[in-house]
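Its record is set out here:
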Amino acid sequence: MKSSEALERIWRAGKKPDSIVLRRILLKADGDRSKLTKLVRSRGVALRFYLLAIFEAQCRLSTGDPWQNALPLKGDGSWSDLIAIDGAYNSELKTYDTELEDVPPDLRGSPSVQESWRQRKLKALRLQQVKGALRTLEELGQENALVVMPRGARGQRLYESFSLMQESGRGDDQNPDLYTVPAPDWAASRVITLPKDFFLNGWIQVLSPSEVATWIVLRLMSQWAPKKHHSKGVFLTTRTRMEAFGLRDDAWEDGCQRLRGLGLIRHATEPPEVEAGSDPVAKALFSQPMHVRQPYEPHRWQMTDEGLTKDAVQALDRELVLEQQAAANRAQRGSERPAD
């Protein structure tokens, strides 16, 4: 995947961080949603772009350094190079459609001309995705915007001159809160760490926004209560999940099942146990039922970071093949049932 190769070059040319540090405030629900879940959309790459921009910043900058744009929007070594084409998921074929439109008839005679057309089309699509992501990140609101773009003489957005904001948003002061790199040793109550393999092995490109959001929330919980996560697993009830993160049932449940299929999380295997404590939020998030899980109770999950070391595209291909085989087996069993 060319986008992963571009990220690898940025990582190797920079500070080579083992983990990317994300401020937790991105996950905090404001009203009924958080900035993270506002970016969980069926189309568009705004969440992916914001995380990639943080990755690029932490490869290049030191702790506390303010962000300044160092990449062009298009061309070699640009922001467009970091984004894989966002193909739509075809539920009928159980695959991601990343094919381009048919080559125009007048270009079909020459393979070299066709390939040149295809490359131009890919570049145009990547640039279109980047601009769409920047608009979405800016349109979160005056105080909550995660990027700021100046305007030209006719009021048009100057995309090339965008500025990245901190995870808390632009803020309400006259001077915007430019992104700065947080310290990696900040407490788990303030930050989450994301392994570099999440970026370098293509996971950020192949996971949907809801799957990324679910994975980040689970990662937060695993780092907030590492002993509980290691021995018993962590879980979220619907009410706590909505109040703390604003992540809805369908996004959470579908995200967990996809992440489990891809080997990024697993069901906890140890028997549950209630952990005493004085923090009511921690109790709500991490205390477990004392009996065997019933159908109405949430699953307990554990992160499996070894899954991140695998190639994301290959892992997704295998998962889609397994889904197709399972669907075919269900159809076969249904056809073999005797008629009433």
About this structure: The mean pLDDT is 83. The beta strands are 19-23, 29-30, 33-34, 88-90, 95-97, 147-148, 163-164, 191-195, 265-267, 301-303. DSSP finds twelve helices and ten strands in the chain. The first strand starts at residue 19 and ends at 23.
